[in-house]
Amino acid sequence: MSNCELYVKGAAVWLPHPDLVWVCGLLDTDFTTTPATLAVIMQDGERREIVVKKVEELPPLRNPDILIGENDLTTLSYLHEPAVLYNLQMRFCTKTTIYTYCGIVLVAINPYEECPIYGPETITAYRGQSMGDLDPHIFAVAEEAYTKMERESRDQSIIVSGESGTG
Question: Domain Myosin motor, which positions (predicted)?
């Protein structure tokens, strides 16, 4: 199946937006190369006609609803900028979860407020658990590294990267 065959009526796509960065719309027609256009119904009901000069210019497809808010970005069907940003937004705004995995990488969103997720009960919950058994958390990363270091005698490194003051 070529990528073009996924662009059928009812498929959800992401379109750039000057203020919101990306907005979702539903295809109102199947994509055809003659004429090379897409009719998209936006969330506000507006109908847009998009000219597609090259197949590479097709808008990114949205992940199925069942994958929205996944705790590991690598499980998404489509892994591109709007999919990652939307998934992180859903986890942070809807589920109030600041941590998300991307494979073995832990992505954190700074909530700019104190979070009650670092107490002794949380430490106990993650102790002895494998990474991925529980929701993403910095304690899961620490437990994984400690286990590999202590039980398997494997050297470990944890890299913390981000804004000033991250570490």
Answer: 68-167
